[in-house]
Design a protein that fits this description.
4-stranded antiparallel beta sheet, 193 residues, 4 strands, alpha+beta, binds zinc ion
C-alpha cells in the first residue's frame, strides 16, 4: 500500500503541470491571433474559415488536370467546380469528380452495359445517354461523389452556376445557370431531355 502512494501522489502533479502549459499555450495563441494584422477579433466564423483556408493544399483535387477526364472538361465548368470545392471544404465536405469528360467510345460502352443491365435500350437511356446526347462527351458534365458531396452541391451548387439536371441522378451536374442564379427545373431522367 505504501509503495503505491508516491506514484498516486505524482500523477495529479504532472497533470497539473500539463494543464498549466496547455493553458499558457492557448492564451499565447489567442493573443497572437487578436494582434494579427487585418484579422477579425475573437473566434468569428470568418476567422475559422480563414484558418481552414491556411490549411488547404495549393491545388483542389477537382483541378487535377493530370486526369484526362478533368483536363478535357469545359474551362468554366472546371473553375466553377474548384470554387464550389473550396466552399464545400470549409463545410467539411470533399468534392470528388468520379467521372468527367468521356470519349464517345467510353460513353457507348456505358450504354451497352446499361442495356444488358436494364434489358432494353429504351430503359437504359433513362440512366445513360447515347454518345450523341451525353454532356460528358462534350466535357460539359461531371459526376460527383461521395454522396454527401453530391448532396452538398445539390444544395449550394447554384451559387456557382452548377445544377443537378436529372431527378434520378443526384451525382450529375452541369453549368446550367449564372452564378447565384436559379437552376432550371430537372428532367425526370436522361430519356426525357
Ligand atoms: Zn453524369
Amino acid at each position: 500500500m505504501t509503495n503505491h502512494l508516491p506514484r498516486l501522489g505524482f500523477r495529479p502533479t504532472s497533470l497539473t503541470v500539463v494543464l498549466v502549459l496547455l493553458l499558457a499555450a492557448g492564451l499565447t495563441a489567442c493573443g497572437q491571433d487578436e494582434e494579427g494584422p487585418g484579422r477579425p477579433h475573437g473566434r468569428s466564423a470568418t476567422g475559422l474559415l480563414q484558418s481552414a483556408d491556411r490549411l488547404r493544399p495549393p491545388m483542389p483535387k477537382v483541378l487535377d488536370t493530370s486526369r484526362v477526364d478533368i483536363a478535357r472538361l469545359d474551362d468554366d465548368l472546371r473553375s466553377a467546380l474548384a470554387d464550389a470545392a473550396r466552399a464545400a471544404r470549409a463545410d467539411g465536405v470533399r468534392i470528388e469528380v468520379t467521372s468527367g469528360w468521356r470519349s464517345r467510345e467510353h460513353q457507348q460502352r456505358l450504354l451497352d452495359e446499361a442495356v444488358l443491365e436494364y434489358g432494353s435500350l429504351e430503359k437504359a437511356l433513362e440512366y445513360v445517354a447515347s454518345p450523341d446526347d451525353s454532356a460528358h462527351v462534350t466535357g460539359d458534365a461531371v459526376d460527383i461523389g461521395p454522396t454527401e458531396a453530391a448532396v452538398w452541391l445539390g444544395r449550394h451548387g447554384s451559387a456557382y452556376g452548377l445544377c443537378q439536371i436529372f431527378a434520378n441522378e443526384i451525382w450529375h451536374f452541369e453549368l446550367a445557370t449564372s452564378p447565384g442564379g436559379e437552376c432550371p427545373p430537372m428532367y425526370a431522367d436522361g430519356a426525357s431531355r
